[in-house]
Amino acid sequence: MSEKIKLLTIGQFAALHGINKKTLMWYDEIGLFRPAAINPENGYRCYNYHQSPVLETILLLRELDVSITEIQHFMQNRSAENLRNLLDEKIAELDLQLMHLQAVRKTVSNHRQNMDTLLSMDLSQISIVEKEKRCLVTVDIEKDITFEKEVELITAQTSNYQLGRLHDASYGSMIPVESIQKGDFDNYTKLFIEIPLLAHKSGLHIQPKGKYLRAFHKGDWNKIPLRYQDILDYARREGLTLYGYSYEKGINEMVIDHMEDYIMQIEIPLLI
Q: Distance between CA 193 and CA 195 in Å, rounded?
């Protein structure tokens, strides 16, 4: 007798496919996948090699979170067209899961980078850094906007981009360089939301690639103008030209309990 038509015990067949034999017993009980034969002497279930592709199909669909009811329906109506349609649906779901995982990885990497910055930073230092282009969602705001209104605007935009939770994006504020140079340090005009893996689309704000002045401010927000004055003085001494917007964001909210420990990162593009 050919090895490929020789009957296998339930234990052998389960081991061949890397599953528990109780799974095969359950599949038999619900009529999803039956043995090739029942041993008349002891009533044991027996399977043959040619059943393997069918079982592997079932196991694949289970791994794709297809319900038992859906699999039973498919098995009763097995065809290339039905399997293609089912797999197309699952491929689309997997693509969404992969995009989400990539976005989560980028978010985690950003947090990790912030922690590296915290552990190596000199709060008094002003430095020049290189940055890649970023696409940002922005919300226009006015000088007298309330905190409650800011939250409302941010919530609306995160809903538009189908973010599951706030940690799926990073947030900050923008102030025109022109305002800073005029001493109008309260003229915040936009809030920004950086969404991981956001593709370039019309209507988005492009934070340009290039060199930036980077500085930090800790604690009392009323003293931020003093930090901006330090930045302006540094730029003048070094003969640097600032342009566009100053981008502000917190980098240590995840590891502090008190706002006096809050550290803001300030980045302003340089015209080279």
A: 6
Secondary structure letter of residue 242 according to DSSP: B
CA 248 – CA 175 distance, rounded (Å): 8
Structure tokens at 66: 């297809």
Reported pTM: 0.70
Phi, psi of 173 (to 5 degrees): -130, 160
Contact 180, 228 (CB under 8 A): yes
* CA distances from residue 231 to 150, 155, 216 in whole angstroms, order as listed: 27, 32, 10
One digit per residue, pLDDT tens: the chain, 272 residues? 444 468 999 999 999 999 999 999 999 999 999 999 998 889 999 999 899 999 999 999 999 999 999 999 999 999 999 999 999 999 999 998 898 888 788 888 888 988 998 998 899 999 999 999 988 888 888 877 776 777 777 777 766 665 555 455 678 999 999 999 999 999 999 999 887 666 666 678 899 999 999 999 999 889 999 999 999 999 999 999 999 999 999 999 889 998 889 999 999 999 98
